[in-house]
Amino acid sequence: MRAVQITETGGPEVLTVVDVEPPRPGPGEVLVAVEAAGVNFIDTYRRGGVYPLQLPAILGSEGAGRVLSTGEGVAGFADGQLVAWKEAPGSYAEQVVVPARELVAVPEGVDARQAAAVMLQGLTAHYLATSTYAAGRGTAALVHAAAGGVGLLLTQMLVLRGARVLATCSPAKADLARGAGAERVVDYADVPAAAREFTDGRGVDVVYDSVGKDTFDASLDALRTRGLMVLYGGSSGQVPPFDVQTLNAKGGLFLTRPSLVQYATDPAELAARTEEVFGWISAGRLDVRIGHTYALAEARRAHEDLEGRRTTGKLLLLP
Ligand code: NDP
Known about the structure:
- Keywords: NADP, Oxidoreductase.
- Pfam families: ADH_N (PF08240), ADH_zinc_N_2 (PF13602).
- Residues 10-317 form the Enoyl reductase (ER) domain.
- By secondary structure, this protein is α/β, with parallel strands linked by helices.
- Helices cover 27% and strands 26% of the residues.
- It is built from ten helices and 16 strands.
- The chain has helices at 41-48, 112-118, 121-132, 149-160, 174-179, 193-198, 216-221, 245-249, 267-282, 299-307, and strands at 2-6, 16-19, 29-39, 57-58, 62-70, 82-85, 95-99, 104-105, 140-143, 164-168, 184-186, 204-209, 223-231, 254-256, 290-295, 314-318.
- Strands 3, 5, 6, 7, 8, 15 and 16 form a seven-stranded mixed sheet that branches. A six-stranded parallel sheet has the order 11-10-9-12-13-14.
- Helix 8 (245-249) links the parallel strand 13 (223-231) and strand 14 (254-256).
- The structure holds NADPH dihydro-nicotinamide-adenine-dinucleotide phosphate (NDP).
- NADPH dihydro-nicotinamide-adenine-dinucleotide phosphate binds next to helix 1, helix 3, helix 4 and helix 10.
């Protein structure tokens, strides 16, 4: 089968398409024919060595496809069934082995591309909007990179829950953020003044910041007294070590740095979040924007585009 492999860490040029033996499912595992593999920022961190991998490694973690065969002890999945997953190393490939506990069945009304697009970014948006901060009617939220993969989904979910969204993104992408329901879209440089204006001087209740190094300080200044700063990524680089007294000086703020793994490890929690997200898609309440699709051989370009800020919405590799 064809797969996208790295033998060393580095820039997008280390991504190489190779022919390898297909994997075999062990006990508790399922072999899947990949129909769409999600491209995520975390794949670039792994490629670059920020999160170490044992090499050589086939990249990718998220996807959707059809069950080919099941290993010993697997129940509840049938050959040919459409399934999706957020975490199966080696998903940039024609076939991948997925632990059965990671697999979810894709219901009628959701196709493979939509499913692959929301397993990582959609579930992330879901836990951010519902659990990290239980946004509701009247919540004022600032969403950075609102036209991105997580950003477009998070903006829609916040609005679904009755929140008001102030968004940032590149000016050329502003219409997309507005289309997702953002009430106001501003340039990164205009935070925090825009946050005060948006809330009659008070500051927003919560900031969702995935940009990190370049936006962190302004994000803190956008918050109300006792507001919540959710730092969930570092698309511009990681935030340097931080003096916690700053939280006191800026209004008794709260700061959290969550990951999806803490909000979807329990199979019941994973199932509940997935069910709600798939339900919104099939009911037409959540628009999944597939911004760009690439062949496996174009994985390098997909990473260059993502890191180069040339993308909107979800990126998929189609084996
Ligand atoms: P995006 O589609 O959001 O792409 C990143 C976007 O960030 C760019 O398109 C760009 O939008 C914006 N950006 C601002 N500054 C920079 C910069 N210096 N370099 C690159 N991009 C920049 O990616 P994803 O949706 O895949 O991921 C978004 C972030 O969320 C990532 O940091 C990722 O690690 C994190 N994440 C965290 C998870 C968690 O559970 N903690 C889970 C999933 C993702 P614009 O041009 O509009 O500024």
